[in-house]
Write a structure and sequence with these properties.
498 residues, single chain, globular, mainly alpha
Length: 498
Amino acid sequence: MTVPTEAGGLTPEECPEAEVAEFEQEFAGTPGKTPLVIKLLVAATFVVILNETIMINAIPTLMADFDITPRSAQWLSTVFMLTMAAVIPLTGWFLQRVSTRTAYAVAMATFCAGTALAAVAPTFEVLLAGRVIQAGGTAVMMPLLMTTLMTVVPESDRGRVMGQVTLAISCAPALGPAVSGVILELGSWRLIFVFVLPVAALVALAGMRQLEDIGEPQVSSVSWLSVLLAAGGFATLVYGLSEIGHGSTGSVTTFIVAGALLVGAFVLYQLRLQRTDVPLLDLRTLKHRTYAVSLLLMSAAFMAFLGSMILLPLYLQNLRGLTELQTGLLVMPGGLAMGLLGPQVGKVYDRFGSRPLVIPGSIGMVVALAALSRIGADTPYWMILGVHVVLMACLAAIFTPVFTLGLGDLPPQLYSHGSSLLGTLQQVAGAVGTAVLVVVMENRSESLAASGSTQAEAFVGGLQWAFVVGAVIGVAVIVLSLLLPAKVEAPEGAPVAH
């Protein structure tokens, strides 16, 4: 059977109506029931994304085992993010070139190989290499999940299914520190990878047994200059941003400027390649207004979201003296609330559209960040927990509808490119948000300390200013939410309601 596909198959105009109907019946199922392919991809995505934050609590142990500095140990998380930023721009082309099963097999095999290498790593450098390989597999899974979802799920049911995806992409990072904290109570940091490997392998095998190919691959050449510009540009830019506040001003500026120039060259080259219809990352996605607004909104929201994820653990551990496990358990309810609310938010979106969710969610996010800006050295833990849960619930009301609305504005042949661009900018926005908030906190703390404040007072003062900046970024999210429509009409060739 030949089916319409974003992955390079026939265009909708070239497919007989009977075959389109057959495709929808086979893969899309019925509204209210999530296709098996999505369930399998969500499970795999949860496992791989969990590892983005799972090493945070192991840093003290790794410092002792490998005799390294805290800055060197932090590279275990930084290198994961850099690899994601470098690889994700390539996934649009990759997902068009290979079948669903091949993409899934490559992603999970790569991830498992990296996990196995990390588990037996004799040196810190080998451990870093394992993390790079892990991240390479992770970078493929998220665009694969989003592209497949947009292909097989009817427009009328996408909100509910996208809510289940939110469960994976929001709960996993929040659970990472808590999971590693529990594992580290049992023994060596190697147990983290020993526990993850069989789970990932089982998910991979189950997926390969049940997964069916969606669409047909398109054999196309790849521009290696585009690959070099994308990988070098995005990785250099994210690295420069992540070094703000740590490296020297000159070196940080050099990396940021070099990264920005390479990204600019990549963009210009893609615009040139679009004339021959073979870009590595198709920027014609940005001609779709709702997608472009959604992209900006998601980037601003991720800046505030990931920045606050860094600030709270710093406060709880450095000032309040909580252990890594206690910190993970305190912030875990917020992540769970965000994930568990995802399916319910999706159902509301399917019925009422985005505006009743995104606008109040954006306002609630700013209010929650403003409340955190009043945090003190003796703020009750229950109050911090409550505000954090509210913040995560508001983010759930934003992310699920905006993901669905933005990608739903694209024609099927641009799904893979749209999800790849979204994933790339998430990494960049996360790096920017983290860098900006940490620099604001450190500069304000140093200023207060120089004026005679105690170390604790200076730290709290810096933290408060950082959360204020997060709230200001949130105001941009509110403005952008007002520009979004309630829903978008499905482009020609997209799966339709049954």
